[in-house]
Specification:
There is one protein chain. This protein has one domain: 434 Repressor (Amino-terminal Domain) (Orthogonal Bundle). Helices cover 79% and strands 0% of the residues. It has four helices and no strands. Helix 2 crosses helix 3. The longest helix is centred in the last third of the chain and has 30 residues. The N and C termini lie far apart (54 Å).
Length: 80
């Protein structure tokens, strides 16, 4: 159980830092306090509601990045 919690925290930290975001930046958009997010990154246990909020945010922000990457790829593939 501890390994899974640690992996979630590591994955979340990587996801967040790659996007150049701080815990305080993203906490309001997730609906979780920044201290709770810090505990998640440090591998502490979280409840189901918190996990759902975190995954929902990650999926929503991941979709935006994917859409932008596709748009950029489409632009470079065009021959005008």
């Amino acid at each position: 159980m501890v390994k899974r919690q640690t992996r979630l925290g590591e994955m979340f930290r990587l996801y967040r830092t790659v996007r150049g975001r701080t815990l305080r930046d993203i906490a309001p958009s997730i609906g979780i306090g920044h201290a709770t997010l810090q505990r998640i990154e440090n591998g502490q246990a979280i409840d189901a509601e918190t996990l759902l909020r975190l995954w929902t945010w990650m999926l929503a922000t991941g979709d935006e990045v994917t859409i932008q990457e596709r748009t950029d790829d489409e632009r470079t593939d065009r021959t005008d």
